[in-house]
């Protein structure tokens, strides 16, 4: 693929490690009043699981991930102030509606004629072209929220 080297194209594990800003409730270690209220209701447990999945997906694609994290933290404070399960249910429904309105990141294109690659990626990530642990190689990696520790997914030996 290149004049001078061997290519390694590995799978890129974008969803392997998610942000820990809004992990769903673990009923095994429920500690707060609101955790117990949710864990005592199968419907609220399912709502919490759905909200967590939707939040993680929305965060991965959000144009402004930091703003989404801040708004999620504020929402959690509001939800935690609920006095009953009706209030919590409404909080979940309202939050899911908000997620539908979050602006998605645009697509960007990376091209490197030297490496002979071109690919599209969400612009809420950025491309790094360093190989800090690989001497005499040139690499490309995507980094950003929800990506975790990025494996280099395209490398060329010189």
From TrEMBL:
It comes from the Bacteria. PROSITE patterns: PROKAR_LIPOPROTEIN (PS51257). InterPro entries: LprI-like_N, Lysozyme_Inhibitor_LprI. Keywords: Signal. It holds the Pfam family LprI. The keyword Signal applies. This is Lysozyme inhibitor LprI family protein. Residues 31-83 form the Lysozyme inhibitor LprI-like N-terminal domain. Residues 1-22 form the signal peptide.
